[in-house]
Amino acid sequence: MKAIATACAVVLALVGGSSAGAVEIVRCTTRDGDVRYQDRPCAGDEAAEAIRLVDDVPHATEPAAGTRVEAVSATSDAEPPSASQIAEAPAPIERMAGAWLCRRDDGSRYLSETGVGARREVPLAMLGVPARGLADAYGRGGAGVSAPGISRPGLDRSPDAALGAAYAWTEDACEPASGDEVCRFLDAEIEGAQKRLRYAFSDTAAAVRAEIATLSDRAKPCH
Predict the structure, then answer these.
(1) CA distance 85 to 36
(2) Above pLDDT 90, what percent of the chain?
């Protein structure tokens, strides 16, 4: 420690006595391993090494090619941060949390925080129950033409038709989505709403603006 402090004193004296810019000193190492710094050549039996120190440089710069820049520290007693200090460090800001993307019967999508899609009542015939083709609807030998006045199919009073008229509950399918997928979905929804706002009438523009505000607030963690 004494040798390092002495070296620092020599370096400070050399730098302090020179003008702002760069100063070159010599590090001399004896055969016994003793090191000293000076501004004159070393003795003949000592190992010499030139060191270039930079003084009063306003911005960090790269050293010139072939030049060695070395900083001399008076002490290295600094301790690493403790576990409690690391624990108290602020946590990194998290991006958008994951959610679920659900799809309606018409193909449109929406976000769900619970993973449960919307439920609705629909006729069983919309779900393909019973399975009947166009030929069955118009009867055997029918032309299969649905234009009024050309072909008028009779009422189907079969048990299958009664079953198709019954209602059943259906639920939109939902899939888990990552935070990035949620952000992409929200950005697309905002862009679509902004396009609709450009062509909206005065009686619907307020609702579209409210929709954009809600989506933008939801998308804040994305940006």
Answers:
(1) 39
(2) 30
